[in-house]
Design a protein that fits this description.
The protein is α+β, with helices and mostly antiparallel strands. It contains four helices and seven strands; from the N terminus they run E-H-H-H-E-E-E-E-E-E-H. It has one domain. It has helices at about 10-30, 30-50, 55-90, 150-160; strands at about 5-10, 90-95, 100-105, 110-115, 120-125, 125-130, 135-140.
């Protein structure tokens, strides 16, 4: 069994789904990666100040602290903007779902993604998110999925070797 359909992307819904992925991935897939650096760099700055370390050390650790705090905030806004832009540039994409892979065609580009690369299937508003890792996802609009495709996707992900 396979499914072939045109997925119609809405810019606002795509941005919302991307933001939902970003927040959920922070809590479920990369909590330590997100929250440990600000703590570690705060301790390093405090220790540097308390022990009278060199100015360059305190400035360097302060810069890393700033980046570790501002980075996630930046991506909270940048990722949805990128998803919105991509949805506006390519509002219709051809999707082929086979038992072996997902094939996505947009303009002259085609990507073949084996099911084994999909680690999770999450719902995010009007989208089904195929999660590849803590930083990567691909969204499919629920309104474009043919009947049975959602169950097919979940079955293929469960059967795929990790």
């Amino acid at each position: 069994m396979s499914y072939s359909f045109d997925a119609v992307y809405d810019a606002a819904a795509a941005a919302q789904a991307e933001r939902a992925f970003y927040v959920r991935s922070i809590w479920e897939l990369r909590r330590l990666m997100t929250f440990a650096p600000p703590v570690v760099f705060s301790v390093a700055v405090a220790a540097g100040l308390a022990l009278g370390s060199s100015t360059w050390f305190v400035i360097f650790m302060s810069a890393l602290l700033g980046c570790s705090v501002l980075g996630p905030i930046f991506f909270y806004f940048a990722r949805p903007l990128a998803a919105r832009r991509w949805a506006l540039e390519h509002p219709v994409r051809r999707i082929n779902l086979t038992p072996e892979e997902i094939q996505v065609s947009s303009g002259q580009r085609t990507a073949n993604i084996p099911w084994r690369h999909v680690k999770h299937v999450w719902d995010a508003g009007d989208y089904v998110l195929l999660v590849f890792g803590p930083f990567a996802t691909f969204g499919l609009p629920k309104g474009s999925l043919p009947e049975g495709a959602n169950d097919f996707i979940r079955a293929c992900v469960q059967k795929a070797p990790s």
